[in-house]
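REQUEST FORM: STRUCTURE PREDICTION
Request ID: SP-0412
Submitted by: Lab K.M.
Chain count: 1
Length (residues): 189
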Amino acid sequence: MRLKKIDDTQLLILIKNGNELAFSQLYDIYWKRLFSYTINILNDKGLAEDVIHEIFTNIWIKRESLNITSFENYLFVSAKNRSISLLRKVQFTELDETIITTLSFAPEIDETTKSSDLKYIIENATKELPTRCRDIFFMSRYDDYSNIEIANYFKISQRTVENQLYLALKHLRTIINRTMVILFIFSFF
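STATUS: Completed
RESULT:
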């Protein structure tokens, strides 16, 4: 089912109000063109899919605060910027992984963060995810479905499931890290 032909302003209003049909229509309108554009920059199908899924996930998560006059301009500029940024980061990926694995929180943070607090933070952070992304995350992490089973359930590719899990986990890490910094700051007061 599709909405009647509407302009970007009307589509933005519907998306801001949480209309999933409008969001789905936006995705359907631009996905193929964005994919072609992004793959020309990255020369990697998987990375191009990741960039596009990240852009659309961010639109959904930040929908209430969006101020976009042209979705086409916004999407293509975002795809270009994220692709270029990704190309720059690829050079440092192995070094970053080494650094991240050796990081640990200060003891004050570890002590102040209990598992119940972390569970609460995760539950609230998942509420910000798009519905399908959240469903895929819960099926994978809480219901122990494999990626193949989730792909079959939603009739999507296994790669799409992997991308959605990647975006969900990236969002959760961002929220958890932000919360940890706040807890660390407050532990000194």
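NOTES: Residues 104-186 form a domain with the Arc Repressor Mutant, subunit A fold (CATH 1.10.10.10).
Reviewed by: T.R.
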